[in-house]
């Protein structure tokens, strides 16, 4: 896409130009009924054109709001492309959306149309949908011929009978670009609701095109790059990644949680975009697999990872690639570098061995992965170090739905490890105190930003809009952070998630939870203690690892999981092990140790306790386990 048009064009302009410029290339690879299918950019263009015509014939117009209820599939991006062409506003959501929430979204957004993935999904929401008067038509992506007289339900098979494309059709489809502007709303995304009722984020073509223009440079994207996609397509992080890939003529492989590991090895991607929780899962899976195969080799692998991490740390000391928050004397810097140089000489031979072993792990990621992008939340330090130690270049990025999503990222041009890098191009970012005053480097405060990517506001929600922006137009992210002396960002917590103890002490739960989940028998953890004397934790255990952990002290044999999880000796042993991590020498304060813990018998589920990008919905968890928490911290 020519730079001039890229700078001025809409998202639809970008999609059109990529389809024309890269017509013969493969745009997507996906599976349907266990059969692998490849789609060229030319076919993507044709499929979107045909669907656009069909939507138009059913009265979908500019500014029509269309709920798109579907998981990842090729039809998703085709539907999105078709809606873009007409200037309709997509309101996307995943298929696991509960009926009451779907009803709220449809009514709040005033959707006139619904695109739903399957007939089964339609049936699940059928009673609720019958009561909605605003819906002019429902379109079922995957279904037989469902339309009947005086009915407003159509399958794609119904509306796509005529697949012929004339020269006039092509010209008219391309000409639709002239009816769109950068200020037009292209989507309305409802936040996942980690802190309460979902809010509708209005995003314009200007917001998303800021990302399409600037993100490829941040990750040094090449036309030959291949992506493996696993995140929900409707989520802005994944959606932006797919648009960026399309803008450069790349190929995207649609994967799933079940096939992700196999797809990495089969398709050998050069790029992958994931969220921290998926990295946590891969970290646990690799370590547990090694432990099962050979405990001695597992210990050796962990040692080699530590050596690799230590070697890289010393390299960064030598090359000024670690975050600096306060001035250090010239003499101290010289001492640090001298010590680093000596350590590098000692570690070098062992690190060479470590890198050979790390190569075997990288092959599990396909062997060609040159870059991984982690977004949707800041990557915990231990994971950042582990991924780096095994030799994968990680772009630790920070963004929000409200920014479509980019705010900062440790790009290919940023070598300051342990940070999120500087703000993205032309983004104003400041850290402010409780009174709104700008803070100096190293001081923790709320992150505020201003730039082209920042959304115009929440849909039909003046109360939230008045809270979201400062008088001079900065968006208040609600995240806490600090800047290094050279301008890189470090996230320290979320202001709305801060736990305030009865003593008045403030506790950032994410940092402690991250430390706890490093333990092999902890799958997940949620810190509790608001207005209490001390802290407690709800722990989702890995039962197999938990049994291994306590086997040297207790013999539970074949006794049921219920007895194991409720046993006072087991709880005491686990609590002691957790508090062994939360010591002042590891950077924790005396009041940040666990007063009590509770072992849960169920994993947190996506769509219930977890958002679609696997973030914890704290308000949901705290409500669900209110009685447990009350007993935990009397």
- In terms of DSSP E residues, the strand content is 15-25%
Helix content: 40-55%
User: What is the CA-based Rg, rounded?
Assistant: 26 Å
Q: Based on helices, strands and strand pairing, what is the structural class?
A: alpha/beta
The N- to C-terminal Cα distance equals 62 Å
What would the principal axes of the Cα set say about the shape? globular
- Biggest sheet strand order reads 2-1-11-10-12-13-14-15
Description of the structure:
This protein is an alpha/beta fold and 634 residues long. 41% of the residues lie in helices and 20% in strands. The protein contains 23 helices and 25 strands. It has an 8-stranded mixed β-sheet with strand order 2-1-11-10-12-13-14-15, sandwiched between helices. Helix 13 (276-293) crosses helix 14 (295-318) and helix 14 packs antiparallel against helix 15 (330-364). The longest helix has 35 residues, at 330-364.
In short:
It contains 23 helices and 25 strands. With 634 residues, it is an alpha/beta fold.
How are the secondary structure elements laid out?
Blueprint: H1 3-8, H2 11-21, E1 26-32, E2 35-40, H3 41-57, E3 65-69, H4 74-86, E4 89-93, H5 99-109, E5 113-118, H6 119-124, H7 126-130, E6 137-142, E7 153-155, H8 156-159, H9 167-175, E8 185-190, E9 200-204, H10 205-218, E10 226-229, H11 236-247, E11 251-254, H12 260-267, E12 271-274, H13 276-293, H14 295-318, H15 330-364, E13 371-374, H16 381-389, E14 394-399, E15 406-409, E16 428-432, E17 445-450, E18 457-458, H17 462-468, E19 475-483, E20 489-494, E21 499-500, E22 506-507, H18 509-516, E23 522-528, E24 535-541, H19 543-550, H20 561-566, H21 568-581, E25 594-599, H22 618-624, H23 626-632
Parallel strand pairs: 1-11, 3-4, 3-5, 5-6, 6-7, 10-11, 10-12, 12-13, 13-14, 24-25
Antiparallel strand pairs: 1-2, 8-9, 9-18, 14-15, 16-17, 17-19, 19-20, 21-22, 23-24
Helix pairs in contact: 2-3, 3-4, 10-11, 13-14, 14-15, 14-16
């Amino acid at each position: 896409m020519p730079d001039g048009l890229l700078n001025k064009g809409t998202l639809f302009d970008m999609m059109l130009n990529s389809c024309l410029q890269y017509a013969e290339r493969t745009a997507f690879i996906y599976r349907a009924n266990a059969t692998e299918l490849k789609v060229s950019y030319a076919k993507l263009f044709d499929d979107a054109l045909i669907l656009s015509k069909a939507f138009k014939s059913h009265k979908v117009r500019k500014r029509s709001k269309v709920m798109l209820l579907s998981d990842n599939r090729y039809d998703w991006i085709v539907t999105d492309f078709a809606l873009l062409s007409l200037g309709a506003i997509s309101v996307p959501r995943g298929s696991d959306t509960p009926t009451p929430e779907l009803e709220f979204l449809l009514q709040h957004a005033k959707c006139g149309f619904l695109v739903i993935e399957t007939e089964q999904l339609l049936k699940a929401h059928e009673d609720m949908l019958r009561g909605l008067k605003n819906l002019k038509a429902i379109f079922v992506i995957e279904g037989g011929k469902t339309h009947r007289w005086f009915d407003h339900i159509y399958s794609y098979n119904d509306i796509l009978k005529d697949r012929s494309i004339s020269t006039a059709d092509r010209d008219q489809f391309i000409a639709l670009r002239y009816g769109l502007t950068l200020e037009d709303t292209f989507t309305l995304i409802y936040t996942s609701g980690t802190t309460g009722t979902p809010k509708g984020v209005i995003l314009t073509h200007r917001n998303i095109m800021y990302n399409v223009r600037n993100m490829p440079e941040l990750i040094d994207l090449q036309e030959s790059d291949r992506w493996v996609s696993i995140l929900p397509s409707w989520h802005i992080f994944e959606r932006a990644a797919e648009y960026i890939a399309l803008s450069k003529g790349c190929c995207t492989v649609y994967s799933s949680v079940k096939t992700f590991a196999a797809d990495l090895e089969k398709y050998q991607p050069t790029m992958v975009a994931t969220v921290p929780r998926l990295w946590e899962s891969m970290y646990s899976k690799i370590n547990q697999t090694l432990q099962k195969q050979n405990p001695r080799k597992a210990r050796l692998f962990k040692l080699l990872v530590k050596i690799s991490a230590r070697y890289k740390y010393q390299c960064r000391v030598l090359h000024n690639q670690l975050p600096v928050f306060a001035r250090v004397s010239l003499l101290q810097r010289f001492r640090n570098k001298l010590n680093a140089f000596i350590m590098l000489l000692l570690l070098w031979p062992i690190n060479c061995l470590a890198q050979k072993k790390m190569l075997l792990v990288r092959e599990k990621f396909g062997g060609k992965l040159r870059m991984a992008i982690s977004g949707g939340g800041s990557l915990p330090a231990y994971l950042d170090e582990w991924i780096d130690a095994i030799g994968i270049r990680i772009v630790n990025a920070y963004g929000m739905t409200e920014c479509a999503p980019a705010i900062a990222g440790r790009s290919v041009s940023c070598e300051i490890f342990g940070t999120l890098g500087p703000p993205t191009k032309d983004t104003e970012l400041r850290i402010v105190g409780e009174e709104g005053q700008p803070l100096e480097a190293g001081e923790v405060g709320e992150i505020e930003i201003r730039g082209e990517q920042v959304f115009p506001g929440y849909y039909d929600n003046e109360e939230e809009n008045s809270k979201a922006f400062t008088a001079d137009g900065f968006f208040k992210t609600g995240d806490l952070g600090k800047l290094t002396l050279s301008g890189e960002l470090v996230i320290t917590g979320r202001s709305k998630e801060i736990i305030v103890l009865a003593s008045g002490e403030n506790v950032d739960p994410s940092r402690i939870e991250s430390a706890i989940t490093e333990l092999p028998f902890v799958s997940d953890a949620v810190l509790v203690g608001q207005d209490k004397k001390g802290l407690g934790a709800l722990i989702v255990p890995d039962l197999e690892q938990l049994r291994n952990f306590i086997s040297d002290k207790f013999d539970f044999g074949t006794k049921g999981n219920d007895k194991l999880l409720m046993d006072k000796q087991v709880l005491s042993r686990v609590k002691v092990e957790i508090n062994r991590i939360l010591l002042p020498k590891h950077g924790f304060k005396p009041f940040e140790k666990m007063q009590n813990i509770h072992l849960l018998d169920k994993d947190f589920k996506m769509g219930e306790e977890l958002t679609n990008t696997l973030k914890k919905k704290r308000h949901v968890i705290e409500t669900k386990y209110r009685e447990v928490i009350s007993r935990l911290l009397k």
